[in-house]
């Protein structure tokens, strides 16, 4: 029986679905440290994580028989994707299932900050009735600057325009501007005109410290700042200075450079005393709708990979979308992307007079993946010959 370990309170539908597909499933509420994870992965075939469990090179080296990692979230920066690929370990995520939830949180942040709701709430909680319009604004007609116009940034763009905001965006890549959104040629062009700046870049390493003192300094007087992307992207010390000096009028932060591993763990931030500040514990994607959708989506990718060898939507292996086996056995062969591997696979099968019922090849960067449905079971010697082909990383026979 294959074994799955699901960490970080993944939606129960994922465990149910994996059990329905024959997995023995263990679940845990929090994230694990590197050493704890290495221990916990003993005998595990697939592991499910969210954003707090780091699946590092050391973990993957220690557990080379692991077959797949499911990131039950959008971000995959917590997994060493390149090394997982080199080891033949497939990694999947849910690229769209919580997009809408993040967008709704950010819209909520923008409206609340522009109406100074955190400050008003704070005052009333302390018995101060401060009925004033000072510093409060409608969002209609204001300029929203979106940094990173991917799935979240572009959906936010559409909904913000529906609220009457003017949208400008900045992205490293050429992107289709939706609605009336305007693409800025430089980050500073965006910062100098935006009443609200929101970051939605991905978690690539080079985005570490991407938004620091220089970028805050370029923001408009009284603008608001939001980060719901990754904690290491923005310098919160610099943010605090710009709030304290009165340059910025408010901020919402959902992600932090260091986050607790599980609910209930202690947490501190220097931003706690800021007046017009929304602090949320990395809940951009934490809605019941999103978590249920993610649970279904990622467990299905893991099941398809385990049962069919399908790498469709994998983030680190060549993608092949496979249906049911058309022969008596399916041989999934992952290898270094060298010339001649496919020919070598077919020569080995041909020498045994084995007919090929179906075959698919995908290559991506350094990796090649050939999946062959064969009309008779190859002998042990043939399987050994396939495993010995130069560049073979991993081979599985799926019946
Ligand atoms: N707070 C949460 O709970 C939560 C939930 C989901 C996703 N996220 C995070 O939100 C972020 C965005 O997610 P997505 O699904 O839209 O990602 P995406 O990959 O669809 O979009 C990211 C965009 O950012 C652009 N980009 C990357 N680096 C950039 C830079 N330095 N300058 C300008 N543009 C840059 C990319 O070209 C891409 O268009 C990710 O970091 C993801 O991990 C957070
Ligand atoms: O649920 C999580 O832990 C991560 C949410 C979010 O950051 C994501 O990458 O989807």
From TrEMBL:
Database matches in Gene3D superfamilies: 3.30.70.260, NAD(P)-binding Rossmann-like Domain (3.40.50.720)
GO terms, biological process: L-serine biosynthetic process
Keywords, ordered alphabetically: Amino-acid biosynthesis, NAD, Oxidoreductase, Serine biosynthesis
Source species, domain of life: Bacteria
Pathway: Amino-acid biosynthesis; L-serine biosynthesis; L-serine from 3-phospho-D-glycerate: step 1/3
Residue stretches making up the ACT domain: 330-399
CDD domains given in the database record: ACT_3PGDH, PGDH_3
Alphabetized GO MF terms: (S)-2-hydroxyglutarate dehydrogenase activity; NAD binding; phosphoglycerate dehydrogenase activity
Signal peptide: none
Catalysed reactions listed for this entry: (R)-2-hydroxyglutarate + NAD(+) = 2-oxoglutarate + NADH + H(+); (2R)-3-phosphoglycerate + NAD(+) = 3-phosphooxypyruvate + NADH + H(+)
Record-listed E.C. numbers: 1.1.1.399, 1.1.1.95
Pfam families listed in its UniProt record: 2-Hacid_dh, 2-Hacid_dh_C, ACT_AHAS_ss
Function: Catalyzes the reversible oxidation of 3-phospho-D-glycerate to 3-phosphonooxypyruvate, the first step of the phosphorylated L-serine biosynthesis pathway. Also catalyzes the reversible oxidation of 2-hydroxyglutarate to 2-oxoglutarate.
Similarity comment: family membership: Belongs to the D-isomer specific 2-hydroxyacid dehydrogenase family.
The protein's name: D-3-phosphoglycerate dehydrogenase
Source species of the chain: Bifidobacterium parmae
């Amino acid at each position: 029986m294959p074994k799955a370990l699901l960490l970080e309170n993944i939606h129960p539908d994922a465990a149910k679905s994996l059990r329905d597909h024959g997995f023995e499933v263990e679940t845990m509420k929090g994230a694990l440290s590197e050493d704890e994870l290495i221990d916990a992965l003993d005998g595990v075939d697939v592991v499910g994580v969210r954003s707090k469990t780091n699946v590092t090179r050391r973990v993957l080296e220690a557990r080379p028989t692991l077959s797949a990692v499911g990131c039950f979230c959008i971000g995959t920066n917590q997994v060493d994707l390149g090394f997982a690929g080199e080891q033949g370990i497939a990694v999947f995520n849910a690229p769209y299932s919580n997009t809408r939830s993040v967008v709704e949180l950010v819209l909520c942040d923008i409206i609340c900050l522009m109406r100074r709701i955190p400050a008003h709430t704070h005052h009333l909680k302390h018995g101060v009735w401060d009925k004033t319009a000072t510093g409060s604004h409608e969002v209609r007609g204001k300029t929203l600057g979106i940094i990173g116009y991917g799935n979240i940034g572009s959906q936010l763009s559409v909904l913000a325009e529906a609220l009457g905001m003017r949208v400008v965006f900045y992205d490293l890549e050429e992107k289709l501007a939706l609605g009336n959104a305007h693409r800025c040629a430089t980050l500073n062009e965006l910062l100098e005109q935006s009443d609200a700046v929101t970051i939605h870049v991905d978690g690539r390493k080079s985005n570490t410290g991407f938004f620091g003192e220089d970028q805050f300094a370029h923001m408009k007087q009284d603008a608001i700042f939001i980060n719901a992307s990754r904690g290491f992207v923005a310098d919160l010390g610099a943010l605090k200075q710009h709030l304290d000096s009165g340059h910025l009028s408010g901020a919402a932060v959902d992600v932090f450079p260091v986050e607790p591993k599980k609910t209930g763990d202690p947490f501190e931030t220097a931003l706690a005393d800021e007046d017009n500040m929304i602090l949320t514990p990395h809940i951009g994607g934490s809605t019941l709708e999103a978590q249920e959708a993610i649970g279904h989506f990622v467990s299905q990718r893991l099941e398809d990979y385990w049962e069919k060898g399908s790498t469709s939507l994998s983030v680190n292996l060549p993608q092949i979308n496979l249906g049911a086996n058309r022969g008596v056995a399916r041989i999934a062969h992952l290898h270094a992307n060298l010339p001649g591997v496919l020919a070598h696979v077919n020569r080995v099968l041909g020498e045994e007079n084995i007919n090929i019922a179906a075959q698919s090849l995908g290559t991506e960067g350094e990796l090649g993946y050939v999946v062959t449905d064969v009309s008779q079971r190859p002998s042990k010697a043939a399987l050994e010959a396939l495993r010995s082909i130069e560049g073979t990383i991993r081979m599985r026979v799926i019946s």
